[in-house]
Amino acid sequence: MRRLLVVILLLALGCQSVEKPEMPEDLIARDVMIDILTDAYLSNAAKSVNNKIIRQRGIKLDSFIYRKYQIDSVQFVRSHAWYNSDLSTYEGMFVEIETRLANMAKELDSVNFPKKNPIQRKQDSIRKAKGLIEPAESN
Rounded CA gap, 116 and 122, in Å? Predict the structure, then answer.
């Protein structure tokens, strides 16, 4: 019986109403907010790869983003809270961010690792089979 009361109490406390924040006067436009969040994800990725170098050089990636878009942290937080309060809008924004990041990755991969056309692959496999090239060269 105690467990049932604890569960009911937890459900009652967990179901509190959350009010949507007021729209800030200096709301960042949706498209600009998508640009900012895309850059934020890229900067977080950079931190995970080269965090030591970033810290050693005193680079403040958040400050860089704020300067780039001529905003301050308070404006960003208020705008982010506004967009975050509407789940469908926020989800749509992240679908677009994910698409942008995937396109960037695909573009960078195609520049750094161009795919061989089927004829080149076949010629490379023939040369490899004949021992004319080393296996590492055929990649």
Answer: 10
